# Entry
Amino acid sequence: MIDLLMLILDSPFLQRALVGAFLIAIVASSSGTFLVFRGLSFMTSGAAHAALGGAALGFYLQATGIAPWFDPVIGALLFAVLVSVVTGYAGESGIAEKMEVAVGVSFAFSMSFAVFLMYYIPSQDVLRIWAYLVGDILLLTDFDIISLAATTVILVFIMILFGKEFIYVSVDMEGSIAHGMNARAYHYLMLIISALAIALATKAVGAILVYAIMVAPAAASNEVLRSVRSVILAVFCIALLSELAGISLSFIIRVSPSAVAGVIASLSYIAGLYVKRARQHVGLDELEKELEKHQPSLTPSMPPSNHHHSH
Amino acid sequence: MGRQLMMEANDLAVRYPNGDIALHDVNFSIDSPSFTAIIGPNGSGKSTLVKTVLGLLKPAKGFVKLHGYDSVREKNRIRKIVRYVPQRDHIELNVPMKVKDIVLMGRLLKKPPPRFSTSKDRNAVIAALKQVDMDDLWERPFPELSGGQRQRVLVARALASDGSVLMLDEPLAGTDSHSQDLIVEALGTYHRENDVDIVMVTHDLNPIHSYVKDVLLMKNTVVGIGTPCDIMDLDMMKHVYGPTARIVEHSGHRYCITKDSGFDRHD
# Structure
């Protein structure tokens, strides 16, 4: 135990990884949960990949000297927010299919755009673009941690302040508007703040892990649990445990911590479905037992009553 | 003191989002207080009318007012006085929200953020759930309820809320007869005991005929307006529901038999 603590204290990269894992678990339990409630889990993937396209634009503008001040992170944030706004616009009427299509189109555009620009970017920067796709939680920089922490604090603050509104928008957009709530403003606020968090998390750990951590635990918990609060808590635990498992395992065997975390998080969804199905079976068994209880009570009662009549 | 209008429309025309005409030449006025039923076959513009009144849809022509407030210019005023129950399938079942929280929503939506609930709010929620016999299931997740139970909870949400007009879009659609009786009874009692207007979109006038004061018969425009007795007119029914519509008299009651909605009973 003391060895482990010493190891953590001695290695700043491990400290950053642990803090990063903690922050991303918070992002997953707030943004991820609400996006799953809203039927918009796919937007996570759209915003994460848009961040990659935006970062590519940043590297291109810097490398060519067109706009040296345009940091790739600015591009990533800008593109992710753009995708979330387009998605939000398509979904204002509350139709999920339209939002899915909007995300799909933005996703395709950002990725094509990124690959297009890669031909004009110095090869060492191309590697840094790929890091947006498959990042490594053990390679986080201080900047990653600070920016992610700042966004997470804002995200949590907004979620606590407007959690009810976000739930109302997800449950009954039309009714919320008719009762005088500015549902559109909350709809966009939630999407934009989620996009910012997703973009920074993507820079930190890569789009693929962000998608796995943000969506699978929330979807799994939503299948099984029966209150909003318990879903949020469960997502935090699943996300954090997957990441910690990934980090720990990477010290024992030669594996990518992100890959392990992604696999475990994804498996949580399958586990969730399994638990739900098992529970339904139990429900059926109980129903059968109950029916059996009622049926014998009818049949055995017949002979005595006959007996009674014969007298 | 002049009469107070609950709802009035003048030369109103509304288009569906796809551009088709949903309502045209709509002219009517209904006095307050009223229990109004908006009836008509599928696609006759009943829900569209309600959504236009709430400012969710904009008129292409003319205007509609609720308690004197214009649906476009004064929609914020309207939304303060209205308690709305959308069609049941407009409620997203992906969120594990509890029954009590759904009902509480009716009260908290009328407050500014952070919308904290007080003991007064919670008492109103329990009282409303009792009126529709759902107070035992108040901790249950809403998505786990049956269709009829969900509809009762949504009606309870309106009963618990504040505002002088209740607007309900097909609150009896897809409900079992037990739920239907509970909802009709709760709304009728609430209208009798409180100074509120109720506007209800429905397929079937039968379950509510004895509570309703005004009926608006629609087929993309107002075909008829009046008491339930006035509306049970064969020519009007045939115009709206097609040539198969029949008015049948039996044991002192008049029934309207239509292909669209079974029959509307009428005393």
